[in-house]
Amino acid sequence: MTQLPLPIKKSVSLAWQGMALTFDVAQDLFSSYQVDRGSRLLLESLEGPQAPPVGEAADFGCGYGVLGIAWQAAHPGWAMTYVDRDALAVAFSRHNLARIVSSAESKAAFVRDIALPYKEDGYDLVLWNVPGKAGRPVIVGLLDAVLDQLAVGGVVAAVVVHPLAELFTDGMTRDDMVVTNVTRGADHTVVHIRRERGQPVARDPFEEGVFDRPATDFEVEGLAWRLTPVIGLPEYDSLDHSTALAARAMLSIRDDTAVARWMVVEPGAGHLALAASQLWPAATGRVYGRDALAIRTTVRAIDGAVPLRAGSIWALEERIDRDTVDLLVARLPEQAQQEELGGMLASFSEVLAPSGTAVLHGRSTEVARIDRLIRKQPGWTSRRPAKLRGFACMVARYSVP
Questions:
Q1: Residue 82 belongs to domain spanning
Q2: Packing angle, helices 271-279 and 241-253, rounded to 10
Q3: Is-contact 347 373, C-beta < 8 A?
Q4: What is the pLDDT of residue 3?
Q5: 208 in a domain, yes or no?
Q6: Could you give the CA distance from residue 180 to residue 163 in angstroms, rounded to a whole number?
Q7: How many Cβ atoms sit within 10 Å of the Cβ of residue 226?
Q8: Do residues 73 and 21 share a domain?
Q9: Which of the 8 DSSP states describes residue 212?
Q10: pLDDT of 1
Q11: Do 33 and 109 share a structural domain?
Q12: Residue 366 contacts by C-beta under 8 Å, 6 or more apart in sequence?
């Protein structure tokens, strides 16, 4: 896999257990201004009795790695699995561990997903800065799955905003678990829950439907599909203007565009990948993006209708397969500036086959910016973007200059 330079914005510091740790961060990762108070409170709750010299731990929703790296720095014999749905967050955790505790790299695993990977002997410690925006039903489902993956004597140490704390305290009715610590800060509550008995159980909250909303029908100009949306992704009951414009653009090129392989970048709930699978049913698909939840939702939506490769990646250059595609459908990131869009355009040039077609959509400002770049690039031609209420979509074709 290609090792790309990370978009480092700045560094933030943490003092814990007599150590001064400095983490590189990206602008669009959680708590990029400073280490958040919840993480600090959770780490403070772990001070005290000496931990065993070795153990198996996980940093669930690791972000740029604060909790897991701090623990490994203080407990070098412990293994740590870093898990986050955001591929960029996992990349920063890997990067920061290599910088801060390079000796721990051999005891670390990095997972881009929405659930802990199963370990036969279970986890001795799970560190979890609970994302309040996930919503109560999802948090309850994830907590139950995490608890089932503990070893006997294993502990979930979680920090959560006060309004959700009762899910971890009053809502803890399992007779195989016991709450051993509740610490309240200014805005957060830390809860430790220990497993008293039982065996680790393999759990996949996504497959169990923890995130699922009711299945819904969608349609654009006669092209129809049914999809099971999920909590945590938009467009669960209707398409936004950007997606609708992209679907119309795909319909407009169907008859004059030969497509043997297509790719959808940042697929969201999977609408445009489903549209591509219906418009070009004999083609194979590729789906890539930062959000593992979006990737899993899209793969499920396709459900084997076409051969599909998929991956949670933070940059298009990081994709594992290097074959080109005839059609690229990509949502442009909001507030992307000329330099970032220029880098994306260079990536698109590498991805597209000769005479390949790109459907680029997003907010009108970013589409206009990349349109200006395309008009200056050899080999590219484009149609005038279609616009709708602050959003836009353009069709561009690429021939190797």
A1: 10-195
A2: 10
A3: no
A4: 64
A5: no
A6: 20
A7: 11
A8: yes
A9: B
A10: 43
A11: yes
A12: 332, 333, 334, 335, 336, 341
Over the chain, what is the mean pLDDT? Answer: 95
Closest to 40 measured CA to CA, from 195, 163, 183: 183
Q: N- to C-terminal Cα distance for the chain?
A: 28
Name the pTM for this structure: 0.95
- The neighbour count for residue 313, using CB atoms within 10 Å, is 22
Cβ contacts of 255 within 8 Å, gap of 6 or more: none
Encoded tokens for 73: 């720095």
For residues 69 and 23, state if they share a domain. yes
Residues 283 and 333 in one domain: yes
Closest CA to 202 of 117, 143, 123: 117
Task: Answer yes or no: do 301 and 361 share one domain.
Answer: yes
Whole-number pLDDT of residue 90: 98
Position 211 in a domain = no
Tokens read off for 250? 């795909």
Residue appearing with tokens 């006997």: 152
pLDDT at 2 over 60: no
Chain length of the chain: 401
Rounded CA-CA distance 78/157 in Å is: 16
